[in-house]
Structures are given as structure tokens and as C-alpha cells.
Amino acid sequence: MKSYIVIILSFFLFSCSNEPSLQKYFVDNSESPDFIALDLGSSIINTEKMTLSKEDKEVLKSFEKMNIIAFKKDSLNEEKYTLESKKVKEILKSEKYQELMRMGSGNNGGAIYFVGEEEHIDEFVLFATGKENGFAVVRILGNDMNPSQIMSLVSLMQKANLNLEQLKPLKSFMN
Length: 175
Hints:
The protein has helices spanning about 1-15, 20-30, 55-60, 80-90, 145-160, 170-175, and strands at about 35-40, 45, 65-70, 100-105, 110-115, 120-130, 135-145, 160. By secondary structure, the protein is of the alpha+beta class. The protein is globular, with a radius of gyration of 19 Å. It has one domain (about 20-175). Strands 1-3-7-6-5-4 form a six-stranded antiparallel beta sheet, with helices on both faces. This is DUF4252 domain-containing protein.
């Protein structure tokens, strides 16, 4: 019996990684006054009054939740902004995250990353920066998503009656 406990404890200790991750980054910074963190469920997309295609239903079925963390830059926290955006960039450079596309230039830009295989994606990550305003990281979590589904999800969000109450803390923080 003791040998089983030792094996289980050894497995647990060696399988836990001290490597930085976005999930850990969100947890570590969610209470900081320089950040706002939101967890949004699939209920943000109100489709009650919409006619959904089979594809739309599949997209919604694969979507679980969205995590957002935003850093608001001001004249008092420029050093922290530089440090924190560097931390996020380092996390996104790990082998876990694959870059899908990059956009923007100059002072504003962003990139989309994913975790998983191209047709079986478990997480999409949008990292957007603005030299004047700060940065935001959006994690879209789901099961077996693919790039076309994320585009369909964005389209559904635009058409649907979004539950904007869930976004009020973000709007208040950024103003």
C-alpha cells in the first residue's frame, strides 16, 4: 500500500509544472488594482430570438467560456505595463501556444494564438496591446474548436443580443 502512495505522490509532484501559464497569470493578477478580470460563460451570447443553423449550434456547443484580463496603462504604471506585457509575451512564446495570425502595427496591435491541433483546438487566445491604453488577453475556451468556428462565434456574437451586463465591469475599468 505504501508503494502505491509513494508512486501517486511522485507522479503528482513531477507532473505539476512550475512553468508560467496564462491560467496562472490570470489567477495571479485578477485581484491587482491595475487589472480587471472577467469570466464570461456561454450565456453572454443570447440566441433565444435567433434562428440558428446546424453549424451555429455546433459552434455554440463547442464554446465553453471566455476569460478576459485587461491592464489599464496610465502615467503612474508605465514600468509595470512594460513588465506585465513582457510576461504575457513570454508565456505566449512557449511551445504550448501556436500563433495563428498577427495584426496591427506601430503602437497598436494584436495576435491570435491557439492551443491544441488545428482541427481540435481547446483554447484561442487574443493578445491585444495599445501603447496608450494598455493590453488585454482574451481566452476563448472550448472543445474541439477550429479556426472557422472561432470566426463563426465572432459572427454569432455580432448578430446575437449580447448580455452586456456581464461586460459592465470592463467598460467601467477602462473609462
